[in-house]
Amino acid sequence: MSAYDCFPHQVLKAEMERRAAAAAKAAEEKAAKAAAKAAGAAREAARTAIPPSDMFKPEYDALFERPAPFGALDAEGVPLEDASGEPLSKSQRKKLIKEMEKQAKLNSPK
């Protein structure tokens, strides 16, 4: 008498189906994670290709996930105004300059 003889056929079949469904769900989740990781890597690769002086231009707002474009830019490409035309504060400009410096490190050849 084997261990399987103790359980009805329907119970064993239901357990096998449950395990198969769980394995399929795990495979789907793994594939979704891999796709999200690949999309993130592609987005980062696209970001690193942008020169720091161009990163605040309106055509790159979607790539850098900004909700609204900046107004005027100075000669170095740092925004002077927000989308509504209001001048940016000194602390806001400092943060943006730090972002540009970070972008310069990413953009520099290795």
TrEMBL record:
Q: Which UniProt keywords apply?
A: Coiled coil, Ligase
Stretches assigned to coiled coil: 13-44
Renumbered to this chain, region (Disordered) spans 75-94
UniProt GO molecular function: ligase activity
- Name of this chain's protein: Cysteine--tRNA ligase
